[in-house]
Amino acid sequence: MRTSFFFVMWIIVYPILDIVGIDGIEKYSFVIALMLIGGLSMVLRRLFPALIEYDAITEKIPILEEVYNEDTTAFRKRLKRNFGIEAITSSYFIFTILLSLFIMLELHLPMVIEVAVFGILAYGSIAHALSLRRALRSVNDNPSPQNCMGIVDDVYRTNYIGYYNMRKLYSYDELMSDRPRHYGAYRTVSIVFAVIAAILGCATIALGLLSLTQTAIVLAAPMAIVMLLYGSLAIIFGLKDAVALTSLKRPSA
Q1: 150 or 176: whose pLDDT is higher?
Q2: pLDDT single digits (tens) 112-136
């Protein structure tokens, strides 16, 4: 599943839990949401393994194609764009951890699991951001195709040599032609989720700005920052996924 799918799930799961209205559920809403979304992800992967695997390939191939075509300019822009997104993601996780710690220490609410989960996510996001930053600096210093070949596997966890050998035998269209059954429907649903993610992201930003006016609420400002960052990420990934799904890059050679 695309990242925008999970943004939609995280935004709508809490209202759904509120509708259920079980007494005391708000204390464990994060854990329940985590279990529901994680469980849904596992079920979808078991039901549609070929679709999800092919979709993951369509995300990686445009990156490999840039390196294969020695388009270092496009590859550098991709690194810069991905670094910017990862920097925002890291900021969101850090602010969420700080907010959770404040709630736990000042309001004496159990937030240990939230802090632990977001701590792990923050560590991974910061590590990836630093990896992208090092790669971007390396490409700026040495924009040779050979350097990009060494970077792409480290940063994006690909197998460039394997892709290079396959591209010598098959065209880009031939590599992408073996689509699993129902991928068209899967892509359409993914585009719908991407658009919904962008719309919900706008709504989240609006709510964040509105919360800034609630000066009587102690947590108004920090919650607004978290909402603004989350909404921004939802818009970014929603638009990113929608564009990628509707217009996959074609090779120039």
Answers
A1: 150
A2: 888 899 999 999 999 999 999 999 9
- Give the CA distances from residue 77 to residues 66, 162, 253, in Å, rounded to whole numbers and listed in that order: 11, 24, 20
Which residue's entry shows tokens 């979709």? 55
- The three state secondary structure string of the chain is CCHHHHHHHHHHHHHHHHHHCCCCHHHHHHHHHHHHHHHHHHHHHHHCHHHHHHHHHHHHHHHHHHHHCCCHHHHHHHHHHHHHHHHHHHHHHHHHHHHHHHHHHHCCCCCHHHHHHHHHHHHHHHHHHHHHHHHHHHHHHCCCHHHHHHHHHHHHCCCHHHHHHHHHHCCHHHHHCCCCCCHHHHHHHHHHHHHHHHHHHHHHHHHHHHHCCCCCCCCHHHHHHHHHHHHHHHHHHHHHHHHHHHCCCCCCC
Rounded to whole angstroms, the Cα distance separating 93 from 162 reads 35
Q: How far apart are CA 71 and CA 48, in angstroms?
A: 34
In degrees and rounded to multiples of 5, residue 71 shows phi and psi of: -90, 75
* CA–CA distance, 195 with 197 (Å, rounded to integer): 5
pTM of the model: 0.82
Whether the predicted pLDDT of 217 surpasses 60? no
Residues 6 or more apart in contact with residue 185 via CB below 8 angstroms: none
Q: What is the pLDDT of residues 16-56, one digit of tens each?
A: 776 776 655 666 778 888 888 889 899 999 999 999 988 88
| Amino acid identity at 191 | I
- 204 touches 227 (CB < 8 A): yes
10 close to 37: Cβ distance less than 8 angstroms: yes
